[in-house]
Amino acid sequence: MSSRSAQVPRGIVFNVQRASFHDGPGIRTTVFLKGCPLSCPWCHNPEGIAPQVQVIVNAARCLGCGSCTNACPRPAGPLSSGEKVGDGDCLACGRCLDACPAEARQIVGREWTVPEVLAEVLRDRLAYDTSGGGVTFSGGEPLFQPAFLAACLDACRQAGIHTAVDTCGFASREVAAAIAGQADLLLWDLKHLDPGRHRELTGVSLDPILANLEAASRLGVRIWLRIPVIPGVNDDPDNLRAVAALASALPAVERVSLLPYHRTGTGKAARLGREDGLTPVPRPSPERMREVAALLEEGGIAAVIGG
Questions:
Q1: Prediction pTM value
Q2: Which CATH architecture group holds 3-50+111-305?
């Protein structure tokens, strides 16, 4: 392999969702990159947190036949449903998947090249052109793979495809500024605006997230703030007023998108061997979502329920 080809960025993608209507304007293709520095207990895509390719196990489908054990080259045997993926020396080689008659195992993530991503995105170019859509890079946290993300954004721009990046904003100033300068739209996820509560919930500081958000706003890139509305966690009036004040202070912010919490990530977390998570909370009712939107609109902020 030449040194030039060795330097071509490759990335780990765990899902590509076509015909997405909730990740930016128009009809979009959402590309989900693995790896995230946050540990939000409500995460909808827990399979995107670890940066490496993973094997997940659906214990409900397991027949207990031992076929996976016989096929696994790992001395300790294949991963169980209660074992955290990434522990030990699992190679994610896929032999246990091929051997399982019940299809109880699945590999999450694979290595993609930039041309592969572009080819997948271009499949729906007609839909983008007629709807004002494009591609959205999400995760995980797409800024976790900055070189690959930057190369994908550049390829999409050269192909005339509108780009959006769905990010929590936790990255170095250099990475955040570089990506903000390449994207047509930033979907900036805010979990909580109280610094102590933010660290407690996500495991990271709020400071770089807000600093990067302010820097992106100064660059003039379009920004939609996105709030996962989680009852009893971040839907209190104080936090919502802080969101409204922040949005008002940043001229590049066009609107706040309110995303109602749901528990679709719970089953995936169990298959990953993750026992952490929120104490079960209900999905916010449509009435509650309208109340949250009204509170933000009182501060002069355009609030949209959904993507």
A1: 0.88
A2: Alpha-Beta Barrel (3.20)
